[in-house]
Amino acid sequence: MSLVIGIDPGSRITGYGLVESSGSRIVYAGSGVIRVDAGGSKPHRLCEIKKGLDEVIRRFAPEVAAVEEVFVAKNPKSALTLGEARGVILLSAAEAGLEVFEYSAREVKRSMVGTGAAHKSQVSSMVSKLLGMTTVPATEDETDALAVAFCHAIRMTGAVWRSV
Q: Which residues are catalytic?
Protein backbone atom coordinates (compact mmCIF):
# COMPACT_ATOMS: atom_id res chain seq x y z
CA MET A 1 0.00 0.00 0.00
CA SER A 2 1.08 3.53 -0.70
CA LEU A 3 -0.24 6.76 0.80
CA VAL A 4 -0.09 9.74 -1.56
CA ILE A 5 -0.68 13.35 -0.52
CA GLY A 6 -1.95 15.62 -3.26
CA ILE A 7 -1.56 19.35 -2.76
CA ASP A 8 -3.45 22.19 -4.44
CA PRO A 9 -1.30 25.25 -3.70
CA GLY A 10 -2.90 28.53 -2.72
CA SER A 11 -1.64 31.71 -1.15
CA ARG A 12 -4.64 31.89 1.21
CA ILE A 13 -6.11 28.38 1.08
CA THR A 14 -4.01 25.32 0.32
CA GLY A 15 -5.89 22.08 -0.18
CA TYR A 16 -4.55 18.65 0.65
CA GLY A 17 -5.95 15.24 -0.14
CA LEU A 18 -4.75 11.77 0.65
CA VAL A 19 -5.38 8.59 -1.29
CA GLU A 20 -4.25 5.10 -0.52
CA SER A 21 -3.38 2.84 -3.43
CA SER A 22 -2.87 -0.87 -3.41
CA GLY A 23 -2.59 -2.55 -6.78
CA SER A 24 -5.47 -1.21 -8.86
CA ARG A 25 -7.42 -0.05 -5.80
CA ILE A 26 -7.36 3.67 -4.96
CA VAL A 27 -9.40 4.95 -2.01
CA TYR A 28 -9.95 8.17 -0.08
CA ALA A 29 -7.77 8.47 3.03
CA GLY A 30 -8.39 12.06 4.15
CA SER A 31 -8.48 15.69 3.07
CA GLY A 32 -8.64 19.23 4.33
CA VAL A 33 -7.39 22.76 3.86
CA ILE A 34 -4.74 24.98 5.37
CA ARG A 35 -6.20 28.48 5.73
CA VAL A 36 -3.92 31.41 6.41
CA ASP A 37 -4.66 34.90 7.69
CA ALA A 38 -5.46 36.92 4.56
CA GLY A 39 -4.54 40.10 6.43
CA GLY A 40 -1.08 38.92 7.39
CA SER A 41 2.09 39.85 5.57
CA LYS A 42 3.20 37.64 2.69
CA PRO A 43 6.14 36.18 4.67
CA HIS A 44 3.78 35.41 7.57
CA ARG A 45 1.26 33.68 5.25
CA LEU A 46 4.03 31.60 3.66
CA CYS A 47 5.25 30.57 7.09
CA GLU A 48 1.69 29.55 8.08
CA ILE A 49 1.36 27.43 4.94
CA LYS A 50 4.64 25.65 5.69
CA LYS A 51 3.79 25.04 9.35
CA GLY A 52 0.34 23.76 8.42
CA LEU A 53 1.66 21.38 5.77
CA ASP A 54 4.47 20.20 8.07
CA GLU A 55 1.77 19.22 10.60
CA VAL A 56 -0.38 17.44 7.98
CA ILE A 57 2.65 15.46 6.77
CA ARG A 58 3.58 14.53 10.36
CA ARG A 59 -0.01 13.46 11.15
CA PHE A 60 -0.65 11.32 8.06
CA ALA A 61 2.91 10.22 7.12
CA PRO A 62 2.42 9.99 3.35
CA GLU A 63 5.05 8.22 1.30
CA VAL A 64 5.01 10.57 -1.70
CA ALA A 65 3.68 14.03 -2.61
CA ALA A 66 1.99 15.21 -5.79
CA VAL A 67 1.66 18.95 -6.37
CA GLU A 68 -0.29 20.85 -9.00
CA GLU A 69 1.87 23.05 -11.22
CA VAL A 70 1.29 26.79 -11.51
CA PHE A 71 -1.19 27.75 -14.21
CA VAL A 72 -0.37 31.13 -15.75
CA ALA A 73 -3.41 32.71 -17.37
CA LYS A 74 -4.07 36.42 -17.40
CA ASN A 75 -2.47 37.67 -14.19
CA PRO A 76 1.30 37.17 -13.90
CA LYS A 77 1.35 38.71 -10.40
CA SER A 78 -1.07 36.03 -9.15
CA ALA A 79 1.10 33.35 -10.77
CA LEU A 80 4.17 34.70 -8.95
CA THR A 81 2.33 34.73 -5.61
CA LEU A 82 1.16 31.17 -6.21
CA GLY A 83 4.74 30.24 -7.13
CA GLU A 84 5.92 31.48 -3.75
CA ALA A 85 3.32 29.31 -2.02
CA ARG A 86 4.42 26.34 -4.12
CA GLY A 87 8.00 27.02 -3.05
CA VAL A 88 7.23 26.55 0.64
CA ILE A 89 5.07 23.51 -0.18
CA LEU A 90 7.95 21.91 -2.09
CA LEU A 91 10.30 22.78 0.78
CA SER A 92 7.99 21.20 3.36
CA ALA A 93 7.69 17.98 1.34
CA ALA A 94 11.44 17.83 0.67
CA GLU A 95 12.31 18.40 4.34
CA ALA A 96 9.98 15.52 5.22
CA GLY A 97 11.93 13.30 2.82
CA LEU A 98 9.06 12.89 0.37
CA GLU A 99 9.65 12.40 -3.32
CA VAL A 100 7.66 15.12 -5.09
CA PHE A 101 5.87 14.80 -8.42
CA GLU A 102 4.29 17.72 -10.28
CA TYR A 103 1.28 17.60 -12.58
CA SER A 104 -0.38 20.19 -14.78
CA ALA A 105 -4.07 20.95 -14.37
CA ARG A 106 -4.68 19.33 -17.78
CA GLU A 107 -2.95 16.11 -16.70
CA VAL A 108 -5.01 16.01 -13.50
CA LYS A 109 -8.29 16.59 -15.34
CA ARG A 110 -7.40 13.94 -17.93
CA SER A 111 -6.72 11.37 -15.20
CA MET A 112 -10.06 12.08 -13.51
CA VAL A 113 -12.43 12.65 -16.44
CA GLY A 114 -10.59 11.47 -19.53
CA THR A 115 -10.11 14.93 -21.04
CA GLY A 116 -7.79 17.78 -20.10
CA ALA A 117 -10.53 20.30 -20.92
CA ALA A 118 -12.96 18.99 -18.28
CA HIS A 119 -14.95 21.47 -16.20
CA LYS A 120 -14.28 21.70 -12.45
CA SER A 121 -17.77 20.33 -11.72
CA GLN A 122 -16.96 17.18 -13.72
CA VAL A 123 -13.73 16.71 -11.78
CA SER A 124 -15.55 17.20 -8.47
CA SER A 125 -18.17 14.62 -9.35
CA MET A 126 -15.57 12.07 -10.45
CA VAL A 127 -13.39 12.57 -7.35
CA SER A 128 -16.13 11.32 -5.04
CA LYS A 129 -17.15 8.50 -7.41
CA LEU A 130 -13.67 7.19 -8.17
CA LEU A 131 -12.50 7.38 -4.55
CA GLY A 132 -15.60 5.69 -3.18
CA MET A 133 -16.62 8.72 -1.11
CA THR A 134 -20.17 9.04 0.20
CA THR A 135 -20.06 12.85 0.03
CA VAL A 136 -18.39 15.47 -2.13
CA PRO A 137 -15.42 17.24 -0.46
CA ALA A 138 -16.33 20.42 1.42
CA THR A 139 -14.17 22.75 -0.66
CA GLU A 140 -12.89 23.04 -4.22
CA ASP A 141 -9.38 23.13 -2.78
CA GLU A 142 -9.83 19.67 -1.21
CA THR A 143 -11.37 18.34 -4.43
CA ASP A 144 -8.45 19.62 -6.50
CA ALA A 145 -5.91 18.18 -4.06
CA LEU A 146 -7.61 14.76 -4.11
CA ALA A 147 -7.63 14.88 -7.91
CA VAL A 148 -3.87 15.56 -7.92
CA ALA A 149 -3.28 12.63 -5.54
CA PHE A 150 -5.48 10.38 -7.69
CA CYS A 151 -3.62 11.49 -10.82
CA HIS A 152 -0.32 10.43 -9.26
CA ALA A 153 -1.71 7.11 -8.03
CA ILE A 154 -3.04 6.34 -11.52
CA ARG A 155 0.27 7.23 -13.14
CA MET A 156 2.40 5.25 -10.70
CA THR A 157 0.28 2.13 -10.22
CA GLY A 158 -1.28 1.80 -13.65
CA ALA A 159 -4.61 1.48 -11.84
CA VAL A 160 -7.84 1.48 -13.76
CA TRP A 161 -10.69 3.97 -13.35
CA ARG A 162 -12.53 2.29 -10.52
CA SER A 163 -12.72 2.12 -6.78
CA VAL A 164 -13.41 -1.29 -5.27
A: 8, 68, 141
Using a cut of 0.85, tell me whether the model's pTM lies above it.
Answer: yes
pLDDT digits (tens, 9 = 90+) for 38-88: 888 999 999 999 999 999 999 999 999 999 987 666 778 888 888 899 999
Q: How far apart are CA 66 and CA 102, in angstroms?
A: 6
> Nearest 5°: CA angle at 88, between 117 and 158?
45
How many angstroms separate the Cα of 89 from the Cα of each of 118, 126, 128, 151?
Answer: 26, 26, 25, 18
In whole angstroms, what is the distance from residue 31 CA to residue 41 CA?
A: 26
